[in-house]
């Protein structure tokens, strides 16, 4: 799934920049300095976005056509400005042009999550720098609005990505490390609990749970 976000390109906070950046999830990689040129964008898609293997239904295609649809990891070296993602990502559907419910709820949740994270001592990782907001700690986060992800009747739709290196409140690697947890019907009253339970303690709130994503084919048991 491809979606747009409200995050400015990393390394630049200037509107109209000639390059962009991308989060690759659940690989937890970030690639920046992607030139906004058709051939460069096509190379990025071939290097990172295309699948590593095809569904058996593609067996009717010729070998050349199948190879054209597969990822080419050897091209990744052309994008040397990339890094591991070590910040918590909270992505909220705010696509008001697609559905008013997301357009209204998204900005409200964005503000609530920022406040709740500050109260728990998180710093905000920005495109330009890491801002020392609230109590300084090694924990960083980014909160952003994203475009359509489906299920507008579940607004507010929120996906919480916990990086593989994230240590929870107990000092252990979080049970949700390396996963994205998708919540639906999130309201401002739920935000503080989500930060405390899901982000800091690695617990899923079953009443809000819509699904989860991670690397490989492992499932998330509630």
Task: Describe this structure as you would to a colleague.
The structure is a single chain. With 222 residues, the protein is an alpha+beta fold. The chain has 4 helices and 10 strands; from the N terminus they run ββααββαβββββαβ. The chain has a 7-stranded mixed sheet with strand order 6-5-7-4-8-9-10, covered by helices on one side. It has a 3-stranded antiparallel sheet with strand order 1-2-3, covered by helices on one side. Mean pLDDT is 86; it is low at 129-137.
State the main characteristics:
single chain, 222 residues, alpha+beta, seven-stranded mixed beta sheet, three-stranded antiparallel beta sheet, globular
Largest sheet: 7 strands, mixed
User: What strand order characterises the main sheet?
Assistant: 6-5-7-4-8-9-10
Helix and strand run: EEHHEEHEEEEEHE
Strand content: 15-25%
Runs in which pLDDT lies below 50 for 5 or more consecutive residues are: 129-137
Please state the average pLDDT score.
Answer: 86
Number of strands: 10
Overall radius of gyration = 18 Å
In short:
The chain is α+β, with helices and mostly antiparallel strands and 222 residues long. It contains four helices and ten strands, in the order ββααββαβββββαβ. It has helices spanning 38-49, 63-69, 100-119, 188-199, and strands spanning 19-24, 29-35, 82-84, 88-93, 123-125, 130-131, 140-146, 158-162, 179-183, 209-214.
């Amino acid at each position: 799934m491809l979606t747009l976000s409200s995050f400015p390109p990393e390394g630049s906070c200037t509107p109209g920049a000639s390059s962009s950046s991308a989060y690759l999830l659940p690989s937890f990689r970030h690639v920046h300095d992607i030139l906004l040129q058709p051939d460069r964008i096509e190379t990025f898609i071939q290097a990172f976005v295309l699948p590593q293997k095809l569904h058996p239904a593609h067996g009717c295609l010729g070998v050349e056509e199948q190879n054209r649809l597969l990822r080419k990891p050897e091209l990744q070296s052309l994008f040397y400005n990339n890094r591991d993602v070590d910040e918590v990502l909270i992505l909220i559907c705010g696509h008001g042009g697609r559905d008013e419910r997301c357009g209204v709820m998204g900005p409200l949740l964005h503000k609530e999550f920022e406040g709740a994270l500050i109260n728990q001592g998180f710093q905000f990782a920005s495109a330009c720098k890491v801002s020392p907001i609230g109590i300084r700690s090694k924990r960083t986060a980014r909160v952003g609005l994203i475009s359509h992800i489906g299920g507008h009747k579940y607004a507010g739709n929120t996906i919480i990505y916990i990086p593989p290196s994230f240590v929870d409140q107990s000092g252990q690697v979080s049970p949700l490390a390396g996963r994205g947890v998708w919540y639906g019907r999130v309201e401002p009253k739920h935000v503080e609990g989500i930060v405390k339970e899901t982000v800091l303690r690695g617990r899923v709130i079953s009443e809000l749970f819509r699904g989860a994503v991670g690397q490989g084919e492992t499932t998330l048991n509630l």
